[in-house]
Each structure stands twice: as C-alpha cells, then as structure tokens.
Amino acid sequence: MTQTTAESPVRKQRAQLKMRTLRTDRWWLAPALVFAGLMAFLIYGFWAIFDKSYFVAPYHAPFASPCLATSCPPEARLFGLAPFGDWYTLPPGILILGLPAGFRLTCYYYRKAYYRAFWLSPPACAVGEPHKKYTGETRFPLIFQNIHRYFFYLAVVIATVLSYDAVLSFRDKDGNWGHLGLGTIILVVNAVLIWLYTLGCHSCRHITAGRLNHFSKHPLRYRAWTFVSKLNAKHQQFAWASLFSVMIADFYVRLVAKGIINFPFA
Questions:
Q1: Which pTM was predicted?
Q2: Which of 266 and 55 is assigned the larger pLDDT?
Q3: Which domain of life is it from (predicted)?
C-alpha cells in the first residue's frame, strides 16, 4: 500500500499487479453467469418490444403493461384510458420498459454485477483488471447512477400496475371473477417477487428511516426500516428471481396469446 506523505501525493491510479491473480478457483464463473443472464434479459426485452402478442384476456404481458395508447386493445388499457391517444403508434413496450430497466440499471447490486461482468472493473476480487484509472461514479456517464432514488418511485408505480394485472387475471374471458389458471399463478408470483425486489432496494431503506437519529421516537418508521432491511439482506436473490420471473410471465402470456398454449388451465 502506498503511504501518503508530504513528498508523495495521493496517487489517482489503481495499484498495478504484476500477476493477473494468484487465485486457483474458478473466479471467472460468477461474472460469466452474470453476463449470460443479463444478456438473455436484454435480448428477450428487445424482442418483446416488437412482438405484438402481448395481451389475451385476462392476461397482460408485463413488458407491455400498462398500455396507454388507442392502438392497444380496449381491455388492455389501464382503467380503460389512453392518454397517448392516436398519435402514438409505436409498441407499448418502448414507453414502459425504460422505467423498470432504469431502476435495475442503476440498482446498487446490478452495478456491481455488470461492472464486473461487462466492464471487468474488476472481474472478481483479487483479480487484475485492464483499466488503469478509476474515477468511480463521478464522471459521465456513470454519474447518472445517482438518479437511482428517483427510478425507485417509478418502479413502485410499475409494481403497482403489475399487481393490478395479477388481480385482473382472476377473471375469465367474459369478465367473471373466479378464474384460476396457470397464468394467474405465474402473474401473482411475479408481482410478489417484483415487490420483494423493489422494497428491498437500498433507496427504499434510506427513505423509510435512513435519516432518523432516534428510532424510539419513530416506532412505525423503525418497523418499516426493519422490514425493508430484512429484504435488503436478500436483495441479490430477489433481483435475479424477479428478473427471470418477469421474463417467464411475459413469455407465457405471449405463448397463450399466440395460441401455442391452449388448454383448460391456461
């Protein structure tokens, strides 16, 4: 470690190692799996944006919900509204996916995940990296990671909409309540995982009681902070579980809408 003295100013470069690593385990496996998982999500999301089979009563694909234009099927519109009117003719996913995608992109856990998997900064603990300088998140474009707290509020809106869609999935095609299909179960499980991931966010933990000096004076906020802290301890697990659950739910709805899956409990 370089010591700082009057004659030796602080170095702004990373420590350079002569060897890439002395590790003998398969350290590359974790970043490789993260790279594969996130790439699968990106590829699927890009395909889902342009796929038009996103709704079949009573199921609404999460990647296209809410639908806010008149080009959407009337049953798919949120509360029957179409605030974007006739002028918007692009796929609904383009409007929606930016909100949850921005939340995940700026998430504290996902930053660590894709910094290692995509930018190799660093690829793993005690492993050398190709970057000579390190500026953290103080410069463009990484300085925009600081807007994560604002994406949290938008993510709460999306989680609420997905929960609403899950409730509507208990209706049959005629609008009668009491339907319980495989799609209903999948949408409900997805909504629950989305909430567990969203509420376990570090920003949510800070909002609930991050600035309190005396928990005893704010018992309700302390209880909320305790609950969120428990979720935060498993934020990584919920991040991956909800990532795959939303893809599975979305893909399942599209398969039903295309008529590929068509059986009594669909």
A1: 0.86
A2: 55
A3: Bacteria
